[in-house]
């Protein structure tokens, strides 16, 4: 069909080239993208919400079993990952700013930094998963005797099931985010973004911040519940 | 009506429109035109409708004999796949993905939906979901019922739950993207002068539907995903063996699936509002009330899911609250029915085919809605929840309501979509056949339920045979009723007389552009100066 997306030109992009055929103005297009992205993020909230609801129900039913799991959670690695993600949110925000100011080099730099932080997060997460497997903390597939609190060996499986579902879904979103960032990076190398056209950077930025915020909730709920003193 | 065949004075036989602007399968499979995508959807959901219908034929045949004709297992799989296909692959996308996809941009004066490529993606997701589900069908199907209740679907499953669940999961994202597209389109793409209070009611109802799709469907997605993980790991949060609660699955499932019932009826209500106004040649009565009742239904839809769990294990006080909230849904629904009736009052009513379907809708939906009140009543529900009463109630709303509305809408906008008219005599005949067949199929089920025949069994006590045979007879009439439109509508594509811009004398933006429309709908962005129901005094309208 007659899509009016103009192929990437060699010159610095001219005005209005990114206005698609069915929008009247750039402003309308930007408004639509923004509302679309926020609506999408609402669906994501509800998607994770199903798991948070399950967490709330079972933590209420089995508080002691849930708290006992904290002895197996590596707070140092989890805390490091929290810091890494917060940094990645900062660099993402700076990347959006760079795109808005047409600073091509800064944009590329901050996108790469964001991707590096994202990758560090996933690597650390991978080590944590590996530890859980070795310790026999994967319900259904490799569940040991839960030696630190054997009286909860039964119910604690629910927490670990939720742990893997929630962090796994989060990690999947991170991986998708990294894919989107690579797409942005290629575009940025081609100098597609500038002060009049930065919607994709901003939208993917919103997505990235959302994924970070999910982690901000996951970290205390999964790592710190047994650490009340 | 009489003017349509000769009403187009154009001399050029082949005007450029969205159907003939490009040719070849690529121009369809890679299109981003909302109208072409709507046509793709019409073809796909029609296919799925007949597959789901074939399942229904299967189990209705089984119920001819008290001891059943097929095995219990076959019967379970037939009714489960019937439910899954009809709910997720026909009813949910039926009006939003087809008629609304086609009409919303036109009705608000836009060239396309806000995200045309996302729209195409949603069709591909739908097809992927349908393929996965059909794979499950060909491998032998699912025997859990359409609700995938654990532990039927987890610990004790012996059928292709994973494939079917992933099919529904995928189709769910198609539904989310459609809803998201509609919400953004209605907010951001309205033509100058198209204020919220001038929006056609069809747009309002699909906007409300979009909200439910966006807020509800992700919860279904995560629920099915948790179920899938449980199947893979053989342990999970719905597994009582480790302290999990199967009823949590039901809560999560119905948190989506009750609102989903309104995804399946609200767009139908929008169609009826358009048809009733057009064929009464009169402004819709109480526009604001009809518009806001759609929004009220959308809001209430999220706080009534517990009425599916009255007999499953839920505290009495929770059940009481859900019961009261469920009664509240009757208020906006009744507002709509009263307003449609009031619109016809002193109107110049003509009984063209779409209006026949609309009248059928109003009567059957009222029966379906009122029996819904019985079921919202705690004590009555305990007695009837496990019986055919629920089946009859549900089908009065879904088939008597939504399918009637879909057929009505399809007949109403067919000339706009295809540029052709279908046979009036055949279409009226088919509408009548469908109405008779429908009532013969499902009214006996009210009586069966009242007498206590449990649902979801392949066999039943011999004293219920008479009513079951009636119901099966009705189903075969209904089946014929659905095949007739299929035939004459295909026929009309080639041999139907050309429809003009406005064969029904309707007001409303979609009737001011050519049939079929051009790719961008409007040559210039229209400026809206009046509401969609500007029919003027009744006397001036010539039928």
Notes on the protein architecture:
The complex is a heterodimer of chains A (229) and B (543). Chain A has 229 residues and is mainly α. Chain A has a single domain, classed as Cytochrome c oxidase, subunit III, four-helix bundle (Four Helix Bundle (Hemerythrin (Met), subunit A), Up-down Bundle). Helix content of chain A is 69%, strand content 2%. Chain A contains six helices and two strands. Chain A has helices at residues 26-61, 63-68, 75-100, 104-134, 156-189, 199-223, and strands spanning 137-138, 142-143. In chain A, helix 5 (156-189) runs antiparallel to helix 6. Chain A is elongated. Chain B is an all-alpha fold and 543 residues long. Chain B has a single domain (28-535), classed as Cytochrome C Oxidase, Chain A, CATH 1.20.210. In chain B, 64% of the residues lie in helices and 0% in strands. The longest helix of chain B is centred in the first third of the chain and has 36 residues, at 72-107. In chain B, 57% of the residues are buried. Classes of the chains: A mainly alpha (229), B mainly alpha (543). At the A-B interface, helix 1 and helix 5 of A face helix 5 and helix 6 of B.
Topology record:
The complex is a heterodimer of chains A (229) and B (543).
Chain A: H1 26-61, H2 63-68, H3 75-100, H4 104-134, E1 137-138, E2 142-143, H5 156-189, H6 199-223
Antiparallel strand pairs in A: 1-2
Chain B: H1 25-29, H2 34-62, H3 72-107, H4 116-138, H5 161-188, H6 201-233, H7 246-263, H8 266-279, H9 287-300, H10 316-328, H11 330-344, H12 353-376, H13 378-384, H14 388-418, H15 424-451, H16 465-495
Helix pairs in contact in B: 2-3, 2-4, 2-16, 3-4, 3-5, 3-6, 3-14, 4-5, 5-6, 6-7, 6-8, 6-9, 8-11, 8-12, 8-14, 9-11, 11-12, 12-14, 12-15, 14-15, 15-16
């Amino acid at each position: 069909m007659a899509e009016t997306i103009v192929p990437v030109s060699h010159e610095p992009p001219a005005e209005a080239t990114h206005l698609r055929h069915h929008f009247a103005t750039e402003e309308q297009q930007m408004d639509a993208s923004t509302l679309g992205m926020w609506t999408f993020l609402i669906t994501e909230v509800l998607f994770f919400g199903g798991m948070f609801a399950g967490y709330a129900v079972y933590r209420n039913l089995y508080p002691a079993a849930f708290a006992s799991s904290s002895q197996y959670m590596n707070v140092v690695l989890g805390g490091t990952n929290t810091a890494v993600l917060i940094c990645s949110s900062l660099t993402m925000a700076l990347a959006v700013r760079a795109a808005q100011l047409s600073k091509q080099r800064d944009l590329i730099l901050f996108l790469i930094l964001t991707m590096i932080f994202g990758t560090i997060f996933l690597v650390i997460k991978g080590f944590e998963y590996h530890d859980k497997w070795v310790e026999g903390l994967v319900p259904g597939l490799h569940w040991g005797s839960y030696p630190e609190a054997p009286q909860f060996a039964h119910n604690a499986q629910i927490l670990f099931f939720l742990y893997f579902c929630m962090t796994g879904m989060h990690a999947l979103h991170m991986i998708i985010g990294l894919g989107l960032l690579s797409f942005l990076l290629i575009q940025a190398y081609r100098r597609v973004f500038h002060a009049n056209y930065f919607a994709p950077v901003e939208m993917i930025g919103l997505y990235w911040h959302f994924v970070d915020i999910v982690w901000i909730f996951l970290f205390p709920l999964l790592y710190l519940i047994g650490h009340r003193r | 009506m009489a003017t349509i065949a000769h009403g187009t004075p154009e001399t050029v036989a082949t005007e450029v429109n969205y159907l003939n602007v490009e040719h070849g399968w690529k121009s369809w499979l890679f299109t981003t035109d909302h109208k072409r995508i709507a046509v793709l959807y019409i073809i796909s959901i029609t296919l799925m409708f007949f597959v789901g219908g074939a399942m229904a034929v299967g189990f209705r045949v089984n119920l001819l004999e008290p001891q059943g004709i097929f095995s219990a297992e076959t019967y379970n799989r037939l009714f489960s796949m019937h439910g899954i296909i009809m709910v997720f692959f026909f009813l949910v996308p039926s009006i939003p993905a087809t008629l609304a996809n086609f009409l919303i941009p036109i009705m608000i004066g836009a060239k396309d939906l806000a995200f045309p490529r996302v729209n195409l993606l949603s069709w591909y997701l739908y097809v992927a979901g349908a393929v996965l589900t059909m794979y499950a069908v060909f491998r032998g199907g699912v025997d859990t019922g359409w609700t995938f209740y654990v532990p039927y679907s987890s610990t004790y499953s012996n059928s292709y739950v994973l494939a079917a669940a992933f099919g529904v999961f995928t189709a769910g994202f198609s539904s989310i993207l459609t809803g998201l597209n509609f919400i953004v389109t209605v907010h951001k793409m309205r033509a100058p002068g198209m204020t919220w209070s001038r929006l056609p009611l069809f747009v309002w109802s699909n906007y409300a539907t979009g909200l439910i799709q966006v807020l509800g469907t992700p919860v279904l997605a995560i629920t099915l995903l948790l179920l899938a993980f449980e199947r893979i790991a053989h342990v999970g949060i719905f597994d009582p063996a480790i302290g999990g609660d199967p009823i949590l699955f039901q809560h999560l499932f119905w948190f989506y699936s009750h609102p989903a019932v309104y995804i399946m009826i609200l767009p139908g209500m929008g169609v009826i509002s358009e048809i009733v106004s057009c064929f009464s040649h009169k402004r819709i009565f109480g526009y604001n009330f009809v518009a806001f009742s759609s929004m009220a239904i959308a809001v209430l839809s999220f706080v009534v899911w517990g009425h599916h769990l009255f007999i499953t294990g839920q505290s009495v006080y929770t059940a009481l609250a859900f019961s009261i909230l469920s009664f509240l849904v009757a208020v906006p629904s009744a507002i709509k029915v009263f307003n449609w009736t009031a619109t016809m009052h002193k109107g110049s009513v003509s009984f063209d085919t779409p209006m026949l379907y609309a009248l059928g809708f109003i009567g059957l939906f009222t029966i379906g809605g009122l029996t819904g009140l019985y079921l919202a009543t705690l004590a009555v529900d305990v007695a009837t929840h496990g019986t055919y009463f629920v089946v009859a109630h549900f089908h009065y709303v879904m088939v008597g309501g939504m399918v009637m509305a879909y057929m009505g809408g399809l007949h109403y906008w067919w000339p706009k979509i295809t540029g052709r008219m279908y046979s009036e005599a055949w279409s009226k005949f088919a509408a009548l056949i469908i109405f008779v067949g429908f009532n013969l199929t499902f009214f006996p089920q009210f009586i069966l339920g009242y007498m206590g025949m449990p649902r979801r069994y392949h066999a039943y006590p011999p004293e219920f045979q008479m009513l079951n045979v009636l119901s099966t007879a009705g189903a075969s009439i209904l089946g014929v009723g659905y095949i007739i439109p299929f035939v004459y509508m295909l026929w009309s594509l080639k041999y139907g007389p050309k429809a003009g811009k406005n064969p029904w004398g309707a007001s409303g933006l979609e009737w001011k552009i050519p049939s079929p429309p051009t790719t961008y709908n409007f040559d210039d962005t229209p400026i809206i100066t009046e509401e969609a129901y500007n029919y003027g005094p009744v006397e001036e309208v010539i039928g």
